[in-house]
Design goal:
- The chain is α/β, with parallel strands linked by helices and 274 residues long.
- It has two domains: 3-105 and 241-273, Rossmann fold (3-Layer(aba) Sandwich), CATH 3.40.50.10860; 108-237, Rossmann fold, CATH 3.40.50.720.
- It contains ten helices and twelve strands.
- Helix 8 links the parallel strand 11 and strand 12.
- Helix 4 (107-117) crosses helix 5.
- It is globular and about 60 Å long.
């Protein structure tokens, strides 16, 4: 990026995450440069979410990507909710229009698309690991895609049981003896920089028995879960794929421009190379 082109008129977009990465930053900035847009994207974390969101409004920041652990807590801080966020009570995108903050969820769209495009059998038994905002997007996408035989696995009963019951699935604190055909990790386990970065989110035997493994963690691309599933010959859907699809929809919301498939492919490749 030519930093001499940055001026007082440059439009700023940001992300807020517990553990920021360069994936979104490289993806968005690559497209801004390729399309000649006077935009800049920067990743942040925060220990004061209300102040950070107030800063989006006060400073005229155009858009904000929202990642774990802020996807639900941010709801009380925005002005309105798009149907995509309202339907699953989870936010991953904020768009600022003249000081009005509107919340969206593009994670849901990405998960639905990936389940369809990878041809995952809707008759598969599944286990969703986690009960946070990303897990909510995943569970809603599974239900709306016609998956009926599954379970939400979360140690926290206070969040896991209500999430499962809301979408018509059972809850369990652990997978136990079950061996679902589809395992979806919607927890931070395996995330770079986290306390469990080298761990599997579930027992190895469960991973080994799954025909399809869907990893939501995007950094690193090759998490312990992805590496083990690939070694077993399972079909793997990566967090990088989720990130690229949801970031595309964010890009459109921020700029009003939909890049071509070729431009998106180049941006996704560039984001993964950093």
């Amino acid at each position: 990026m030519d930093i001499t082109a940055i001026s007082k008129d440059t439009t700023l977009c940001i992300s807020l995450s517990g553990r920021p990465s360069n994936l979104g930053t490289r993806f968005h900035n690559h497209l801004y440069a390729e399309l000649g847009l006077d935009f800049l994207y920067k990743a942040f974390t925060t220990t004061d979410l209300p102040a950070a969101v107030a800063g989006i409004r006060a400073l005229g920041i155009r858009g904000c990507g929202v990642s774990m652990p802020f996807k639900e807590d941010v709801i009380a801080l925005v002005d309105s909710m798009d149907d995509s966020a309202l339907a699953i009570t989870s936010v991953n995108t904020i768009v600022n229009t003249d000081g009005h903050l509107r919340a969206y969820n593009t994670d849901y769209v990405a998960v639905v698309s990936l389940l369809r495009d990878h041809g995952v059998d809707r008759g598969s038994t599944f286990a969703v690991l986690g009960s946070g905002g990303m897990a909510r997007a995943v569970v809603a996408a599974l239900r709306d895609s016609g998956f009926s035989e599954g379970v939400v696995v979360a140690r926290n009963e206070a969040t896991g049981r209500p999430l499962a019951e809301e979408y018509g699935y059972p809850w369990r604190p652990e997978v136990g003896s079950a061996r679902p055909a589809l395992v979806i990790n919607a927890t931070p386990v395996g995330m770079a920089g986290g306390p469990a970065s080298g761990d599997l989110p579930v027992e190895a035997a469960v991973v080994d028995a799954a025909g399809t493994v869907f990893e939501v963690v995007a950094m690193p691309i090759e998490t312990p879960l992805v590496r083990r599933a690939r070694a077993n010959g399972s079909m793997v859907i990566t967090g990088a794929e989720v990130q690229a699809l949801q970031a595309t929809e964010q890009f459109v919301l921020y700029t009003g421009i939909r890049p071509t498939d070729e431009q998106l492919a180049r941006a996704a490749e560039f984001s993964r190379a950093g």
